[in-house]
Design brief:
By secondary structure, the protein is mainly α. It is built from two helices and no strands. The termini are far apart.
Length: 61
C-alpha cells in the first residue's frame, strides 16, 4: 500500500509537468514523513495511555 501511494503521488506530479526525479524524490520524502509522524503519534498515544492507566490504578488504591 505504501508503494502504491508513492507511485500514485509520483504519477500525479508527472502529470503536472515535473521531471521524473522530482516526482519520485518528492513522493518518497512525503511518504517517509507521513510514516515517521504516524509512528511518533502511535508512541505518544501509548505513552499517554500508560500515564492514564497509572493514574487510575493509583487513584483506586
Amino acid at each position: 500500500m505504501i508503494l502504491a501511494l508513492t507511485m500514485l503521488f509520483a504519477g500525479w506530479m508527472l502529470h503536472r509537468g515535473h521531471t521524473p526525479v522530482e516526482a519520485v524524490s518528492t513522493a518518497v520524502v512525503l511518504v517517509v514523513t507521513v510514516l515517521a509522524l504516524s509512528t511518533g503519534a502511535l508512541k505518544l498515544r501509548r505513552a499517554v495511555w500508560r500515564v492514564v492507566q497509572d493514574s487510575v490504578s493509583s487513584a483506586e488504591r
